[in-house]
Design a protein that fits this description.
Layout (H helix, E strand, L loop, with lengths): L7 E5 L2 E4 L3 E2 L15 H13 L4 E3 L8 H10 L7 E6 L1 E3 L5 E3 L3 H15 L4 E7 L12 H12 L3 E7 L3 H8 L6 E3 L10 H9 L3 E2 L14 H10 L3 H12 L12 H9 L7 H8 L5
Parallel strand pairs: 3-4, 4-5, 5-8, 8-9, 9-10, 10-11
Antiparallel strand pairs: 1-2, 6-7
Helix pairs in contact: 1-2, 3-4, 7-8
């Protein structure tokens, strides 16, 4: 089954991820806030992902908030032995649905415990520390925040640590504190500012997980992408995901959807091999 999901990554002992994962953010209500419009449909998507062989589900307790983690628990608990749930801390939601960065170490510890409770587990597989805004990492020191998570790792509440919205300097600093297994940054065909960071992660056996692989709140729009997809008899979304998988063996993707049909279309991107001329055309999108 993993071969049909782009293969696997093993960035640490005990942590094996299918390269096609599933991002659960879209299971919450509009603007990732409140309950889903159709709870049964959300449950069905989660179960279909696991039935397809996906072992990599991405979530956060601030999706909803708590809504998505509780859906995951309802749909999948007790969890399959090979399933790895990757969550993140560093933000909270206001009563109006606003996104608020919260990096106080005491609050980060509280966020970890909330994830544990809502997912129904004794230890979290991977916790990513979310630092900068979704599209602009900063250069602030992360020692205090990452150190707090490293202490929870030593206590056995977290198995592995990662980073989100991070700069190269912050990654280097974090690795002096504790091992880093994942980096989750904005990256896709049109947003290639982290090319060097991706290559650094590959060299250090760190899984590089692009968020917004299809553009996120601003879906990818490219005449070149549309033309290449038509030529390959695939959808633009499948071509964009296939490009990421072929960009580096360190890449794992977590496209999100609230539709079983779209989930299966995303999975099918692993079977799409892009010829060299198509890759050359697509590479030009990010440098145009």
């Amino acid at each position: 089954m993993p071969a049909t999901l782009g293969g696997i990554l093993t960035p640490a002992n005990g942590l094996t991820l299918t390269r096609i994962g599933y991002g659960a953010m879209q299971l919450a209500g509009p603007n990732v806030f409140g309950p889903p419009r159709d709870r049964d449909r959300a449950i069905a998507v989660l179960r279909a992902a696991v039935e397809a062989g996906i072992t990599h589900i991405d979530t956060a307790d601030f999706y909803g908030p708590a809504v998505v983690n509780e859906l995951i628990k309802e749909a999948l608990h007790p969890y399959p032995a090979d399933l790895r749930i990757v969550t993140k801390v560093g933000a909270r939601r206001g009563p109006d649905g606003s996104w608020r960065q919260v990096l106080d170490p005491a609050d980060l510890r509280a966020q970890v415990h909330e994830n544990l409770t809502h997912l129904g587990v004794d230890a979290l597989d991977v916790v990513n520390l979310r630092l900068g805004s979704h599209d602009t990492p900063n250069e602030d020191s992360l020692a205090e925040q990452f150190g707090a998570l490293a202490e929870l790792r030593r206590q056995g509440l977290i198995r592995h640590l990662g980073l989100s919205a991070v700069s190269a300097r912050q990654l280097a600093e974090a690795r002096t504190i504790a091992p880093v297994v994942t980096v989750q940054n904005l990256y896709n065909l049109a947003n290639r500012q982290d090319d060097d960071l991706l290559d650094r992660c590959a060299a250090q056996n760190i899984a590089f997980v692009p968020y917004f692989p299809l553009g996120g709140f601003s879906p990818l729009q490219s005449e070149t992408l549309t033309k290449v997809a038509a030529r390959l008899e695939a959808s633009p979304q499948q071509v964009a995901l296939a490009w990421l998988l072929q960009r580096s063996p360190a890449v794992a993707i977590i496209p999100g959807t609230s539709s079983v049909t779209h989930l299966r279309e995303n999975i099918a991107s692993a079977a799409l091999t892009l010829p060299a001329d198509a890759i050359e055309e697509l590479d030009g999108i990010g440098t145009a």
